[in-house]
Design brief:
heterodimer, A: alpha/beta, 6-stranded mixed beta sheet, 19 helices, B: mainly alpha, 3-stranded antiparallel beta sheet, 14 helices, 3 strands, elongated
């Protein structure tokens, strides 16, 4: 057996928060051998990112501390090592890629400057040789013409391209270890697949070891040799990837593997009345330039969308980021200006004034993606849910209103003692339940769900999907379900509408789309998504 | 404390954690309370008169001299030895701690005014023989009250203007922004001096004139908050619920902007007080004879041989402004969400 390149021994991490001490990582040990990929897997709050950051000692010390443990790299203990020796390791021998490509590059510096900085610090390269090396690593990272990208600024690059620049930067000094912290989570599925391939390819070419941090077991199966499962700061299970995925020992790993959205939408009558219909719906943003703000071009965010949605049915809207699916939802709710016709519950609502629109809003409610941003932090749960009731004059007296709030909370599976608590006291999944309760308290006929599960862990996603399906069969609401996650859409929808660049690419019954897609784009999407699946 | 939301509770704790700000706040509160009751601490009328077994309250009620057996129908001058004799013959008087009001001239000065500090006038008198300590106390009161009123009014206008700009954006925002840029480019002090020469300035005139220019301070921060928050999901959710625009602004957006507003308030107050003081110093401020710190400073400048004038006015001004800045810093800490997690 080869000597491990990196070994983490009994590592603990604590954070001081006010008077409290929070133990984020509790005595974690694992090793990383040369040329090997190890995946740290866990849901949010499992301590996987904190573990990765402590390897490079990038935690906010002294707020964070290591009560015990060692991290050995080349015979040196990185815990408590001084800043100067650490700097010779960071970016040079151990490089890191972060999750958020939008914020991990400096927006004011060109690609060349940013990669050149790494080369100058660690290799002392400047001038022409540095430029040459920049081009080399950019091409390694998958840019066809590296020279053309040298002067590019981050805002000129797409999310996937930025992540490639991050990879190029990490590879610039040919590190021994690459730490990738959820490198593809923020990206679309098709780009995700390409980047993962690139990473795997580069790892073999350069003979690096890779520590991959992810919540996605699909990625793990594709990429990792070994796997460390973490939960609440502890290592639950560790071993060969194939082994663990086939024969998981701990119940937590089993749950992770099986928390996969399955099943299908509750049955609904094909003759149900129409709840929502659009004709030639368009949302066009003008691009204005110059002193006089003259219109130079336009962006068709939503371009000629026609569909009909029946009572009790779910229409899944699928597309990658920028495809216009959220804009479509906002246009239907009349929160975004649009052209074309919208019928809601038999009434034409496109030309209604905001005031005339207000009473109709109780029939069409919305749940947003981010459970942290969609609840006002200064209101109690009960205030949040009852606000709509007050506006629409529902529920009459205060007692009746309270009982309706309690009922809505019970329906979404929250105990009634949460009334006077504030959103920040709840977890992401619970907050999403509160947001759903706010919407269903009005007993709407249409519920627009804008990526309601995307910000949540897989196991909680399943709970929310089950809840939504249950609510649909109980109240016969129509859902407009927007998601980039094909597995979730498949488990929720009767019909699917695939969007690309504002246009409908394909539209049909769910099973037909998933088993027999007609369009090339749909096929690509489905392949990329289900290629990463474990079962 | 359960009626306070957890955010408010955390902020209160954060405010208290800044010891300097907390002590400043208490000191300021004590000084301000004393100044509010300055009439009972320094006045040229007794607090209580017992004359022929009935009680009189000269601070609240004007009594003619004839009440006490004098000759004039005008209000009794209690500092007059003649009146004092009349009263003490058949009763007694309870004087405030300092038997001078801000406009009382001490005619019994042993030296020509300005007189240096003595047992009678603790901080001396100014060049018209008026008690410096008393005038400082009244001057402090008028400065703080002026600052407070101006701050409240300019916050109201500033928040409203910022809210409208931020919420509606677009052309309204653009026009308003340009207007504010022009408006804040005006040389404020000169304009105030010119405007003050058209009218006879009093407290309310000065307040109105300064309000013309001071409301812009808060507009940029409030506008920025609104621009940011109007696209937050919970505001969108509120619109989807069917809330009307004013209700969204008041219930969902204003609390966000309040953070910025409250943080700014002590600093706006400081600016207001300084502006009033400069106007008074230049002689364009409050009417002649009113107690004001600016006027005290200008007396100090004119009577360099009487350092107690300049030094004491300077100290009061400096301490007041410093206390306000310290309080402002503590408030800023309290609303700093990053600090709370450290």
């Amino acid at each position: 057996m080869t000597k491990p390149l990196l070994s983490v021994e009994n590592l603990s991490v604590s954070f001081q928060q006010g008077d409290q001490i929070i133990e984020a990582v509790k005595s974690v040990s694992f090793t990383l051998n040369p040329r090997e990929t190890v995946a740290l897997v866990g849901e949010s709050g499992s301590g996987k990112s904190v573990t990765a950051l402590s390897i490079l000692q990038l935690l906010p010390y002294p707020k964070a501390s290591h009560p015990q443990g060692h991290i050995y790299f080349e015979g040196q203990d990185l815990v408590g090592l001084g800043e100067a020796p650490l700097r010779t390791i960071r970016g040079n021998k151990i490089a890191m890629i972060f999750q958020e490509p939008m914020t991990s590059l400096n927006p004011l510096q060109s690609v060349e400057t940013q990669i050149g900085e790494v080369l100058q610090i660690h290799k002392g390269l400047t001038g022409a040789p540095a430029t040459q090396r920049c081009i080399e690593v950019l091409e390694m990272a998958g840019f066809r013409d590296g020279r053309a990208r040298l002067k590019a600024f981050p805002h000129q690059l797409s999310g996937g391209q930025r992540q490639r620049v991050m990879i190029a930067m990490a590879l610039a000094c040919e590190p021994d270890i690459l730490i990738a912290d959820e490198p593809t989570t923020a990206l679309d599925v098709t780009i995700q697949a390409k980047l993962l391939e690139l990473l795997k390819d580069l790892q073999q070419k350069l003979g690096m070891a890779m520590l991959l941090i992810t919540h996605d077991l699909g990625i793990v199966r594709k990429m990792a040799d070994r796997l460390v499962v973490m939960k609440e700061g502890n290592v639950v299970e560790e071993g060969e990837t194939e082994n663990i995925l086939k024969h998981p020992q701990s119940p937590y790993t089993q749950r992770l593997i099986h928390s996969f959205p399955a099943g299908e939408a509750p049955s609904a009558s094909p003759t149900a009345p129409l709840v929502l219909k659009t004709e030639h719906l368009k949302v066009i943003f003008d691009v204005r330039e110059g002193l006089l703000r003259r219109k130079v071009s336009e962006i068709r965010a939503v371009d000629d969308i026609n569909f009909a949605l029946k009572k009790g049915h779910t229409l899944g809207v699928v597309g990658e980021s920028g495809s216009g699916k959220t804009t479509l939802a906002m246009a239907i709710l009349r929160l975004e200006k649009s052209q074309g016709k919208i019928w809601s519950c038999g009434q034409e609502i496109q030309d209604l004034s905001p005031k005339a629109m207000r009473p109709l809003r109780r029939d069409m409610q919305v749940v947003f993606q981010d459970p942290y941003g969609s609840l006002s932090p200064r209101m109690t749960v009960s205030q949040i849910i009852s606000e709509g009731l007050v506006i629409h004059g529902l529920g009459g007296t205060k007692e009746e209103r309270n009982s309706r709030v309690t009922q809505a909370l019970l329906e979404v599976g929250l105990a009634s003692d949460v009334h006077n608590r504030y959103p920040h006291e709840f977890s992401g999944g619970q907050r999403q339940r509160i947001a759903i309760a706010r919407a269903i308290a009005l007993k709407p006929k249409l519920l627009v769900l804008d990526e309601p599960t995307s910000a949540l862990d897989r196991s909680i996603q399943i709970d929310i999907i089950n809840l939504l399906r249950h609510l649909q069969s109980a109240h016969h609401m129509a859902y407009l379900f927007i998601s980039h996650d094909l597995a979730v859409v498949r488990a929720m929808s009767h019909e699917v509408l695939v969007m690309q660049k504002g246009k409908i690419v394909e539209h049909g019954p769910t099973e037909a789309i998933f088993t027999d897609p007609q369009e090339k784009y749909t096929k690509e999407l489905i392949k990329a998504a289900f290629d990463l699946m474990i079962v | 404390m359960s009626f306070l939301s957890p955010i408010t509770q955390r902020r209160l704790a954060q405010f208290k954690a800044n010891k300097r700000g907390l002590y400043s706040f208490w000191i300021f509160l004590v000084l301000f309370t004393c100044a509010l009751f300055a009439n009972f601490i320094a006045n040229d009328k007794p607090l209580l008169v017992d004359y022929k077994h009935s009680f009189y309250f000269p601070i609240f009620v004007e009594y003619p001299e004839t009440t006490f057996g004098g000759e004039f129908e005008t209000e009794a001058n209690y500092r007059d030895p003649f009146v004092q004799d009349l009263i003490t013959q058949s009763g007694w008087m309870l004087w405030p701690l300092i038997p001078y009001s801000y406009n009382t001239v001490n005619n019994d000065l042993p030296v020509p005014a300005p007189a240096p500090p003595s047992r009678e006038n603790w901080l001396g008198t100014d060049d018209q023989g008026r008690d410096v300590l008393t005038r400082l106390m009244y001057g402090f009161r008028i400065s703080v009250l002026f600052g407070l009123t101006l701050t409240i009014f300019s916050s109201l206008i500033g928040v409203a203007a910022g809210a409208i700009q931020g919420y509606f954006g677009g052309a309204i925002d653009l026009l308003f922004q340009r207007f504010i840029e022009i408006w804040s480019g005006m040389p404020i002090l000169y304009l105030l001096i010119i405007l003050a020469s058209f009218v006879i300035p009093n407290f309310w005139w000065l307040l109105g004139l300064m309000l013309l220019f001071s409301w812009v301070t808060l507009v940029p921060v409030v506008r920025a908050e609104f621009l940011r928050a109007r696209n937050l999901d919970y505001v969108k959710a509120a619109r989807a619920l069917g809330l009307s625009t004013p209700r969204i602004i008041v219930r969902h957006l204003l609390p966000n902007a309040m953070v910025a507003t409250v943080t700014f308030i002590p600093f706006i107050m400081n600016t207001s007080i300084s502006t009033l003081t400069s106007l008074d110093f230049l002689g364009f401020g409050l009417p002649l004879g009113s107690p004001s710190l600016g006027e005290m400073l200008s007396q100090g400048k004119n009577n360099i041989q009487a350092p107690w004038l300049g030094i004491s006015a300077f100290l009061v001004l400096a301490i007041m402004l410093t206390l306000l800045i310290f309080i402002g810093e503590a408030v800023r800490d309290a609303f700093d969400s990053r600090k709370a997690t450290q």
